[in-house]
Amino acid sequence: MPQFPHLTFVRSIVGEPRRIGRVGPHQRSEANKQNRAGHSQQLTERVTQEKADWIQDIKQRDTEGLASLDPTTIPVFLEVKPGLISSDADLRTLGIEVISEEADGFIIGSSYDELVSLSEKIQGFAYKVHGSGKVADLWSITVGDREAWKPEHVLSAELLEQWGEIDDAATYTVEVGIAFDVPIPAAPDPDKQGGETRLAKHYQALDARDEALMKRQEHFETFISHYGELTSSLVDNNDSFACEVMLTGMGLKDLVHNYPYVFEVAEKDDISLSVTATDVEVAADLTVLPPSETSVEIGVVDSGIMEGHRLLAPAIDGTRSVSYTQDASTADYVQGGGHGTKVAGRVLYPEGVSNMVSPYQLPFFLRNLRVLDKDNKLTARFPAALMEEIVGDHADLSIFNLSISSRAPFRKKHMSTWAATLDKLIHQAEVLFIISTGNTSLHSINGHLHAGRAYPDYLERPACRIANPGQSSFSLVVGSVNHASFEDHTHTSLGREDEPSPFTRYGPGIWGMVKPDVVTYGGGLVDSKFATGRVREHKTLSPELVRSTLQGGSATGRDSVGTSFATPNVTYLAGKVKELYPEEGPNLMRALIVQSARLPGDSFRNPTRLCISKFGYGIPTLDRLTDNAVNRVTFYHSGEISAEEGHLYSITIPEEVRSPEYDFEVLIEVTLAYTAEVRRTRQKTKSYLGTWLDWLPSKMGESAESFSDYALRSINGEENSYESGTRDDLDGFPWKIRRRSDYGAVKEINRNNSSLQKDWAFVRSHELSETFNLSIQGHKGWDRTKAAVPYSIVVSIEVLGEAVAVYNPIRVANQVEVTIET
Predict the structure, then answer these.
(1) pLDDT tens per residue across span 72-106
(2) Domain that holds residue 704
(3) I need a surface site. Which of 148, 220, 319, 726 has the fewest CB within 10 A?
């Protein structure tokens, strides 16, 4: 049991949050209202032209040997008021299904009624007909050749670059995303009056949606069968489905130019990992004991594990191991000591075998889930579908280590199918994936150095961006830093201790999310002093790993580096949180790990956008993760919140801690973690998520009552009075990141863009108020059901530099009863 355990919040107030700084009407939309006749005429002309062009195209398809399409479904490209589809559920009142949200208010849409509804609304807008007001926010309709605008918005950057060279007769394998914008209706309360009737209608709506989804999938499969075939199963991502297909170049062009529901076509991911092998043996004279019967079990999704290895065997029940490869064996056949075996050893021995005290009791059970072949590649499986299968097959597991990624950086427009599927599984199945950022290869590093791009500058290049699926919003994503530095007469390390590993990949993540979330020690590399660009591994800079001996070699060694081996260090920490809080879900694991992390060196006090891109929130530690100290106290709470709901939390700071006669430096850290339903067809965090959350802190000198009036518009239906400007004279805490990219010490980063939001501030103890208060606020994304989403909030208060006793005084002031070990 921890000596100073984390405390739970004992007070919270629930109410309706006050919306500060609502965005008003857009000038362009207002101008359209002032010119109804002119705006309607312009749109009508474009609708008429678009319909005529589509009818002509449909007539020509048969003669050109193209697949048949529904003449009543017409692709359209619209410009609407930015943010419209995240504040209004969709464009269905205009007869438009949203296929994809693009940048700056552009929408790929599909009219499902030959543009009839759209035409009627446009005509009604001219005469102020009730229900036609949204036409003011429809700014323009693009009329013209779809071959001109669709490839740019549908294709990945790599395919777009090759688009002019596509051969009609050649065969291509690509990943395709197909939109299906029919929201799942909210379930009614069966206990309310008429609940049974509403529940019956709800089930009818679900059945109707499932039937419509099946029709959309059958329609797509029929279209593809004209040119090729599906090479994977279909993966459902709520508002879309995705798969891999093999088809001719002619079919690929027709899919991109004319298929009304396609929103993404991308090259198939190359998922393969390299493993080096210098076989530097490490002494491993250790007596190993099996985990306790109640220990957490962790799924290792990798290349298999050498289950008979004496250092691993007590933690693995081979009868529960599964191979998802074409080879039924679950052994690790990767040359050079394996890959999954090394990852598994790192979960169980995070500091290396030689640093353990004998006898050593293994901390967890491991489940061997083999997905990579003997060449360390993922072949013949669609990664997103594989993740669904694994979670479905192992519903008793709550933590998965995934040290696997694509070789290519993530695509910046839509969340990938793989990453979105991880997000869906984490939210719905309440599991946590800990995944690596991916590695920059030795070949690429040498190429950068030969070209004059020095370490670490080359890591800022687009090719060194985090690899798919490391952009996943809800996964815990791990990068690597050097654990040591090295120099002799022939070689020197690339970077010093706690600087980025030369092979790690940088953030930020998609749409400005903070990624990686954390970093830890995955090894380093050396370069020759006499010939720049001859980078290699070195035993001093390599972590100590357990090795598979199926191909020969030693049982342990220092022969491999990579973010693959940093990731299981964080998996170990997640297992420790689950051990302490077995009933908690992924959000508390994420929040506590990030709360325990700190940026290295001076970066913690003076962070920059670049250091957040390198390190995320920093290097986590077990001590801060699971325990406190006399000078540090941590509060946490896990709950659920709906859109347009606010939860207010307060921590009482006793007078002895904030007395004017003292002048201690105090660190305040806050971390919020949450998950929600997601939509792949959307861009930006606030429209990707069904509901998004943020947290709002009080100011210094602000009472709990005053902050409640500011943060909550009403409580139990009773309005709070609040006068704008009453807080202007109060000083805010000097938070490092804050809620806007132009606020805080770190510019260009907005903590609200992430589902894992940490911030911290340094203040003097006498500046603290009687209470520290914060409000968790729920905001509408695309979900109009107001379904509650889970979250965890963690707050720590620590006196720096001096062992000032604050834990017990704050605990007593907040009436939290725990057993304190002495």
Answers:
(1) 999 999 999 887 765 555 688 888 999 998 888 89
(2) 7-21+628-813
(3) 319
